[in-house]
Amino acid sequence: MRPKFAQYLPILDWGRRYDRGALTNDLIAAVIVTIMLIPQSLAYALLAGLPPEAGIYASIVPILLYAVFGTSRALAVGPVAVVSLLTASAVGQVAEQGTAGYAVAALTLAGLSGAFLVLLGVFRLGFLANFLSHPVIAGFITASGILIATSQLKHILGIDAGGHTLVEMAGALLAHLGEINPITLVLGVATTAFLFWVRRGLKPLLRRLGAGPLLADVVTKAGPVVAVVATTLVVWALGLAERGVAIVGAVPQALPPFTLPGLSPELVRQLALPAILISVIGFVESISVAQTLAAKKRQRIDPDQELIGLGAANLGAAFTGGYPVTGGFARSVVNFDAGAETPAAGAFTALGLALAAVALTPLVHYLPNATLAATIVVAVLSLVDLSILRRTWAYSRADFAAVAATILLTLTLGVEIGVASGVVLSIVLHLVKTSKPHVAEVGLVPGTHHFRNIDRHDVRTDPTVLSLRIDESLYFVNARFLEDLIQDRVTDGCRVRHVVLMCSAVNEIDFSALESLEAVNERLRDMGIGLHLSEVKGPVMDRLKTTHLLDHMNGRVFLSHYDAWCALARAGADTKAAE
Amino acid sequence: MRPKFAQYLPILDWGRRYDRGALTNDLIAAVIVTIMLIPQSLAYALLAGLPPEAGIYASIVPILLYAVFGTSRALAVGPVAVVSLLTASAVGQVAEQGTAGYAVAALTLAGLSGAFLVLLGVFRLGFLANFLSHPVIAGFITASGILIATSQLKHILGIDAGGHTLVEMAGALLAHLGEINPITLVLGVATTAFLFWVRRGLKPLLRRLGAGPLLADVVTKAGPVVAVVATTLVVWALGLAERGVAIVGAVPQALPPFTLPGLSPELVRQLALPAILISVIGFVESISVAQTLAAKKRQRIDPDQELIGLGAANLGAAFTGGYPVTGGFARSVVNFDAGAETPAAGAFTALGLALAAVALTPLVHYLPNATLAATIVVAVLSLVDLSILRRTWAYSRADFAAVAATILLTLTLGVEIGVASGVVLSIVLHLVKTSKPHVAEVGLVPGTHHFRNIDRHDVRTDPTVLSLRIDESLYFVNARFLEDLIQDRVTDGCRVRHVVLMCSAVNEIDFSALESLEAVNERLRDMGIGLHLSEVKGPVMDRLKTTHLLDHMNGRVFLSHYDAWCALARAGADTKAAE
């Protein structure tokens, strides 16, 4: 057992064992990740509608705090595409882009999200994130990727256009199509094409040219940096900014400032729901990558402590000029592959970015927005995976419906409605599925003690004994189904004298189902029919014993269904002979 | 198989076999129910905030239509207490009591409710009513009983006071306490006391005096009629109406009029949700009494056809000056006990009430409202059953929480919020419960092929084989739980070489759980550990076969857990010897 204090500070665990070997590995990983993060941070800030430095700031203190409180050895925390989109959508509803109120609202969003995550973690409520099913998450990420890519087209075309849904964006783009800036368009399309080629074609080419795998990897990762440097130089040398190419412009040359999130009740009320959504989505994205990487080294992730780590990171972002952050998939994998051994790698990355913030920011003055947009488009298109539609369709129509609804509604009505509908739909479909459970009438497989479905197997039955195997927990959603089912099977004229419910797959009987069983028992008694149970599980039986059902039951509880058969079936003698 | 047409018209079924014996029994039942319904109809109209004749009208055409479309032989349809309360609450939000708009809105509510019920029935969606768990219904009915009784105090005190929640009502009563009409108070209290005595003390007294059980029963049922006649005579003879006693006043002497519900989009929008709530609550109340009575005679209720029957009744109410109706518990039991054999008894009751509407209405002119209020108070207090709190507490904390929340929120925030919160809470608690399923590590019971929980039984295990029995379907809510659980059990240093999941109680594996299994499989492979499944159910296996999981699985699927043990356990030789 770890002591209670250290439980909330995982740094005490790995910090004690830190050595020179780990230091070297962490430093190498930090350099590679820093190079990758500089353009990415600027780009995601652009996506969130914030000034470019917000992206850098959101990558410094949050990483440091996660290194103290987080449990993953490889997770890299910072601005990510989907959370940036959610930020733009939420903050865009309460303030105008470019105003001071917008930046303050983004801080508030990070603060609320951080507080919510910490609360979830302290009360160990991380399992609530599971209400987002995998298909809903996959659908949401895919739709978000499409939305994000579309939202960046305006920067590549060099026009002004807004909108938060696909329809709004397409409409705005079409309306301003006449204002395309041809130079921006050329720059944007060339950069996009270059980045796609780096991602798809460069690595195999380098390998064919004889480069080692590590070198090929580092060069490929540096692709966005090359694009940034090249387009900045072109814009600066040719004076393209004066010819209408939108550029990043002046970025303050400073360490992250101390900032205060706005906490007016009205702002908090408006941002509370989006903050919860961002927290949950961010946590789900982060925890799955953290677990995948931890498993590769037989390490352990504590989901509730992860909530605290991510919460601390977001609170840090709120007070240092950032915006909501989470563990990013791409950067974490890069960090892991580059050999990061402990969260100290993250701390070194933070140092690298702090250095960039004070030393490199003047250099990005002439960086065209189109380059950043191209970086985003290329990055997010890897999130788009429409195959989830085909795969869920093949496996389960309910899961397909949840994915399809999430994608459709996210694209047409926005991110909040899309993901909320997905969650509600997947819950309702699950309840509907369990509301009509599979119930098999079973009979004895000759020569055994086993009972099987009479429709699938050649089994022995007795017209006076109705044996039903219920393949579902009994709870309110299907309680009445059981009443109807039994009433259907024992109406006028049938010869049934005993109904035996085989409960081997009944994991729970809730109060509604208990009352239904009592009602069934009374109705069967009025008909002169016995009600029996068999193979009731321990925990279920423990609970039934606290009630009057067993006392009033017009029948018995049998340990095995075979016991019930022997006691009740008329053909008892035959059965014995058949053994 | 019944023909398709007759399926929607159960009257064709029983109508063909109707004979003189059934006619006699139905007529007797109709007389008794009519005597009971006249004061009740007036009283419930008062509760719903409508003129008294609305209660009579709501009891005529709806009963006739239910007789044609309904499947219960004994259900008596008409105004009931809880639905009247819901009507007052819903209509009170869109119109002022006593205005023409109020009556029209009540018609609209009945029309929407009828249409919704018919739709549910035609699309066979009656199971959706099951989302209301028994504890939520019990809590709601109890809280409604308290609300209704409280709402009638103003009539017994003779003051003007409003309010839809307990707090509002208590405040309004206290504020007007100075305006109590002493004569009304005496009348009201005396009538309430008399009715309580009739209900509790009269029947045993009559039996002791030598009356037969049937006579004692009929006299007891006539109690409210006696109270109505006596107090009407007192008010008329002593001229109490001039001394401030509120009376029913002029009631039109006519058959139900043809009316049109208001269908303005605004009104429909405002009443749509309350109409759905009224439909579901009414259906749930009605179906449970119908099924209980049907079972006593081995008859069958078709829940979806019941929806059509109740829907037709409500549509009838909407076009004949009524308001929302459903199958009442008390009157249906009276109808059944009095010997009703077919829905024709209902039709005869409708005739009796039609006769009352044209002949008896002038006689109730001097009937004091306090008498009707006393009738309601005595009737609804039998609905109040706080023992549900104790019973659910003893059985399951989750069910207790749902009841307690429903009662508390219905009383304090109103009926709609109360019942909605109960539904949401019971669904969430169910999901939370299944999110952390019972998982037992199992071992072999020596000398058998059975595997049991290692914590409860003396069993044989193998340190290299981890056998886990999962007592829950695997779906999105607990998918990640499984990942965490397995990761927890096979971290650094343990000797586990094989993980076997025993799936005998797994009734479903959804797409999220499938992906979790794939992730678990990959992580275990990274650790050099095998993942195996045993005792997978037929339908679950059918679905798994459509996926790649089985191809990629770093292990096998075993028919029985014993097969898995024999194949994987190092102590295979010992096991054989132990047999």
Automatic annotation (TrEMBL), chains A, B:
Protein's GO biological process: transmembrane transport
Tell me the InterPro entries matching this sequence: SLC26A/SulP_dom, SLC26A/SulP_fam, STAS_dom, STAS_dom_sf
Keyword set, alphabetical order: Membrane, Transmembrane, Transmembrane helix
Q: How does it sit in the membrane?
A: Multi-pass membrane protein
Q: Where in the cell is it found?
A: Membrane
- One Pfam entry name: STAS
The UniProt entry's GO CC annotations, sorted and at most eight, read: membrane
Bilayer-crossing residues are 27-48, 54-69, 76-95, 101-123, 135-153, 173-198, 218-238, 271-295, 307-325, 345-364, 371-389, 401-429
Top-level taxon of origin = Bacteria
Q: Mainly localized where?
A: membrane
Where does the record place the STAS domain?
455-575
Kindly give the NCBIfam families that the UniProt entry links to this protein. sulP (TIGR00815)
> What protein name does the entry list?
Sulfate:proton symporter
Q: Record the organism.
A: Roseivivax isoporae LMG 25204
